[in-house]
Amino acid sequence: MEDKIHELVYSKAVIEFVTVANEFCKAIEAVNRFPVMENLQKVQKILPLLYLKTTMLPKTERVQDDELEKYVSELDYNVLHQKWLQALGEHDSFYEVFDPSIQFGQETMTASIAENLMDIYQSLKDFLMAYSMGNDEVMNDALFQCSYSFEEYWGQNLVNVLRAVHQLVYGEVDFDEADDKEKIKPGSGNPKWLDEFWGTGTDEDE
């Protein structure tokens, strides 16, 4: 049994999945290190590959009674979530086209790119941290939990958010221009006290 588990957790399909999952997590964590569009382009390339590699994972069953440790804390989640919200700004929201609870109704539902990405990240990061421990049984159970969560939850998140990311990447969104609008500039009336400090206020301000 132990040999079978060892062979499974170190199989080619699992190693490839670990590699792609790690690249996704690195891209999510690097949100402030690169321009917004560059981050989105990275995510756009990784998401389809991540979906493919997850569907190719070997089937396994839990072997431990204890629940796996969660490594992504609420604080970790919220900090990264806020960074992505800030980066995407008004472009974070998108219309959801598939939701099992409303698929036969007439309602429309909005979703968040940042939230969808973070939900995927949370599941993958917990898996990677457990997998990195090198304990075959823990690695096996982490793989089982990650696959189960993919089927039940974050797999749908992935295909949904990919559509929104695709629209931003190939749309005419200028994130640099949006950033410039939010910056404080002397002489622009933003804010008035700064204009007064620089002596660039207009007669109307006086």
Which of globular, elongated, flat, extended, rod-shaped describes the shape? Answer: elongated
Strand order of the largest sheet: 1-2
Please, how many helices? 8
Strand content: under 5%
Biggest β-sheet strands, sense, barrel: 2 strands, antiparallel
Question: Which structural traits does this protein have?
Answer:
single chain; 206 residues; mainly alpha; 4% strand; elongated; disordered C terminus
Descriptive account of the structure:
By secondary structure, the chain is mainly alpha-helical. The chain is 63% helix and 4% strand. The chain is built from eight helices and two strands, in the order ααααββαααα. Strands 1-2 form a two-stranded antiparallel ribbon. Helix 2 (12-29) crosses helix 5 and helix 3 crosses helix 6. The chain is elongated, with a radius of gyration of 22 Å.
Can I get a quick summary?
The protein is mainly α and 206 residues long. Helices cover 63% and strands 4% of the residues.
Strand and helix layout:
Layout: H1 2-9, H2 12-29, H3 36-55, H4 74-88, E1 93-96, E2 109-112, H5 113-131, H6 136-170, H7 175-182, H8 192-198
Antiparallel strand pairs: 1-2
Helix pairs in contact: 1-6, 2-3, 2-5, 3-6, 4-5, 5-6
